[in-house]
Design goal:
This protein is an alpha+beta fold and 151 residues long. It has two domains: 58 residues, no CATH class; 78 residues, no CATH class. The protein has six helices and four strands; from the N terminus they run H-H-H-H-H-H-E-E-E-E. The chain has a four-stranded antiparallel sheet with strand order 1-2-3-4, covered by helices on one side. A hairpin with a 2-residue loop joins strand 1 and strand 2. It is flat.
Amino acid sequence: MLAKQKDSVFYRNTLFLRSLDPLQPKPASCILAEGGVEDTMRYWLPVIITGSLTIAAAAHAGDSRCAASIDRVQPKTGVIGSQAIAEAVALAYLTPIYGEAAIRSEMPFRASLSDGIWTVNGTLPPGRVGGTAEIRLCQRNGTVLSIIHYK
């Protein structure tokens, strides 16, 4: 009987010391002893829901004028209606970001249209290793959807 009590005390002390160490995960018996799974869920569920809603709201908090259709007269082919226009717009956006020398070294640009999205990529000279700039533009209203430079 005395050995069982010593083991029990040792076990409790071990659990107590583990609960003080932030790097050690708490065993389920500690969680239950501290208030149960329901109390833990009562605490964390509102935190998780609030965090998720905050992230979702921040993701949709962009300028609504970009998502809305333009009420003015538009060409039937959209604001960016040709490959030449897409390449010119790409040059205008990429030059201030990456520098004129870097962007000029990636010319000529290649633009391709897929599902109303223009994807404009730079080209590498033969024998050169590395990546190029890429920009995606909405054909309908000219919105910049993404800008990236591969390595």
